[in-house]
Amino acid sequence: MKKDLSRKISRIKALFLRKKIAQGIEVVEQLCRDHFEVHVGVAQAFASAFQAHCYEHTLGRINDYELEKGSYEIAWQVLDFVEKLAQYQHTSPYLTPIPPLDIDQAVLRKRDLLHVKTLQKKGTPVIFLQGSSGMGKTTLCKLYLYTYIAEYSYVAWISSGAGLVDALVAGFFDEDNQQHYTQQYKAAKFERIVKFLEQLDGKKLLIVDGLDDYDAFDLSMFKTLNATANFNILISTTKAYNGDRFQTIDVAYFDEEQSSELFFKEHLSAKEDEFLPKLLDLVGNQPLMSRLVARMLHQYHQWNVKALYQFMRHSQVANTNWQIAAHLLEDRSQDEKALFTHVLTLLKIGDLSELEKWVLEQFVLLPPFEIEWLDLKQALKSSTGFSKILMGNRNIQGFLDALGSLTKKGWLSRDKATYKFHGVLQEATHYFFRFEIEQKWDVLTRVVLKLQKIYLEQKRFSEAHQIEKYLKIVMIRYE
């Protein structure tokens, strides 16, 4: 890579010395497109602000050169910046931002972690982690990354509800309005990303989280990234992979022992109860639901294990919610319908405050990824209908208290100052608050678009791109 750059820079110098300035500038422009664009795209977000400055200054001086009709002096200034760019070394192991891990939630997935590692030792570098929503696939991916990160020279995390190409282009390129790109344009960008990744030395890890809509091209690219760029790849998906090129691991439901262990970990004051195995079996020993009922029982002292089990099993509310789930999710599995039913039932008895309800509504139109409180607060300032709630320290504290109480009750997950609304809980909450959300649609979408703008300004293009995609999905629910 360095030799190739040196040859091209020597060629530019030779052209400039022979006064072939226009031809030399053309070579510089091509060099920027072919090599520096991806390198600096990474640098802007994760490594070197100075490097990004050099790149932008190079482009600016090229424009100056064109305006001044072939200035010899500006041409050599352009070359000076190009030489600075050529000295760039990517030193950070993080090719993209890496989400945080709550280690307490991951301990019960060590069996699956060992399964992944065993397959890799047998020479299986591309593995699909598949299973229904709420099973802990994302947590398993995080646990693998943080456990084995020292084995890799570079790691990348892609949250790809939008698809592999869209996600990688959004993650690596400093460009706005990516939803307007043609497939041909994105394919060309993706090709350059692959070339950049091939040039990085050492073993690499790519985690593609939530790839529920992959196609033949995505599968081909996994093979290419492994073969040419030395990537181990983990893909979490709800869409089962049925081919024979890659290995799969079914991320299974917990057994009774694991589910009970998780319950007691989340509900520290709980005691042994003969109805607990029945309650956990009712929610399918599903990790997300085991955690949610534990936290709810810890917060709502008017409910005990027996009463909650009987209500969720026999109440008219539960029967009605099952009919709703069967109608809304007619194309989905019985497990997903049951999960939707249980979440609706818990929302019904959750006794949420008005402020807690309002906080949840803010998350309903946002993709289910980690959102920092400072970014959310800044986005909410654009909400004219609710701007008063953010005025004054007391009200700010009230909002933070609502975020905290929702976390304690299990509706939101939190890591330090970052909050996430799980997609399963989010979809059910959306239905539960659908009429209120419809009335507040304009206000809520302003918050969403403001957050997207914040991410674009921070050059977090993957998150901004996901917001665009997810908002369209939510709009379809009202059609």
Q: How would you write the strand order of the largest sheet?
A: 2-3-4-1-5
Ends apart, CA distance between termini: 52 Å
**Rg result:** 26 Å
How would you describe the shape? elongated
Roughly what fraction of the amino acids lie in strands? 5-15%
Structural class: alpha/beta
Mean pLDDT: 80
Are there runs of 5+ residues with pLDDT below 50, and where?
43-47, 174-180
| Number of extended strands | 8
Q: What's the tally of helices?
A: 23
Secondary structure: helix percent: 55-70%
| Largest sheet report | 5 strands, parallel
Structural overview:
- With 479 residues, this protein is an alpha/beta fold.
- The protein is 62% helix and 8% strand.
- The protein has helices at 2-17, 21-47, 49-67, 72-86, 103-106, 110-121, 137-148, 164-172, 183-199, 216-229, 256-266, 276-282, 287-299, 305-314, 316-328, 334-349, 354-364, 373-380, 393-408, 423-432, 434-439, 441-457, 461-476; strands at residues 126-130, 154-159, 204-209, 231-237, 247-250, 371-372, 413-415, 418-420.
- The protein has a 5-stranded parallel beta sheet, with helices on both faces.
- Strand 3 (204-209), helix 10 (216-229) and strand 4 form a beta-alpha-beta unit.
- It is elongated and about 90 Å long.
